[in-house]
Write a structure and sequence with these properties.
By secondary structure, this protein is of the alpha+beta class. Helices cover about 30% and strands about 20% of the residues. Strands 1, 2, 3, 4 and 12 form a five-stranded mixed β-sheet that branches. Strands 7-10-11 form a three-stranded antiparallel β-sheet, covered by helices on one side. It has a two-stranded antiparallel ribbon with strand order 5-6.
């Protein structure tokens, strides 16, 4: 059943949250450069402080800040004393989500990858390129469908992204879908994941994430996450920055 679209105000609120998350992401990477022995939990604390200063709200889970093999755990939340410290040759995953502190405001949600050390190893580049290609295949599928004025089916969107991930030769398991709708009370909305089935459609004027991932158990993981919505004129609107290269720390 089709649910009500977001209001113009909610679209504005989502875009504002997305803009601020991208700023916080940049500030977080700056903090890591200034403190090359910082811990995962300390980075998460910095992000939460930024949320408070900017009047952003999140849910009970703290941000996902993962170094090295902790990037292989999809939902990794650092705990003080059991977390890792940054050191050379570290892959970094940063996954943050928040909404503006206004009634009915929807979330935004982003994931970026970074590297602290010397030259980026070939297997790290390979995993990152696979998720970037998967993400871009998903965007290309949406744009192609919208040109023909068709509705985007979640299952076909997932298939457009899935082949790249599985053909990477790195995927141990796929523990979650390739994206989700964004909610107003939690980051995950009620409009469905991209693997629910062919009857599930991307709804107009409701934002979703695209977030393909590769996770090699106890070794490393990669994810790229952006937000988008399809407007009433059948146009694709990407509301977050789009990562193209691994950030160097």
């Amino acid at each position: 059943m089709k649910r009500a679209s977001w209001t113009t105000q909610q679209i504005r609120q989502h875009r504002e949250a997305a803009r601020q998350l991208c700023e916080i992401k940049d500030e977080t990477f700056k903090i890591m450069r200034k403190n090359p022995a910082i811990s995962e939990h300390e980075v998460a604390g910095f992000i939460l402080d930024e949320f408070k200063k900017r009047n952003l709200k999140t849910d009970p889970d703290i941000p996902i800040v993962a170094f090295r093999e902790n990037t292989s755990f999809v939902h990794y939340f650092p705990k003080r004393g059991a977390d890792k410290k940054l050191k050379p040759e570290s892959l970094i995953m940063l996954d943050i989500w928040a909404r503006v502190d206004e009634k009915g405001a929807p979330f935004a949600d982003i994931t970026w990858m970074a590297w602290h050390g010397g030259d980026i190893p070939a297997d790290i580049q390979k995993g990152f390129r696979a998720v970037i290609t998967s993400r871009d295949n998903g965007l290309g599928y949406i744009e192609d469908v919208l040109k023909r004025e068709f509705r985007v089916k979640n299952s076909k969107l997932a298939r457009a992204m899935n082949g790249v991930v599985l053909s990477s030769g790195m995927q141990d398991f796929i523990p979650h879908g390739f994206g989700h709708s964004l909610g107003t009370t939690t980051c995950h909305g009620r409009r469905g994941r991209f693997l629910e089935g062919s009857k599930s459609l991307v709804q107009e004027n409701i934002a979703y994430t695209i977030e393909p991932g590769i996770y090699v158990e106890n070794k490393f993981g990669f994810r790229s996450e952006i937000d988008f919505y399809v407007d009433e004129n059948n146009r694709l609107n990407i509301t977050t920055e789009v990562q193209r290269e691994i950030v160097r720390i």
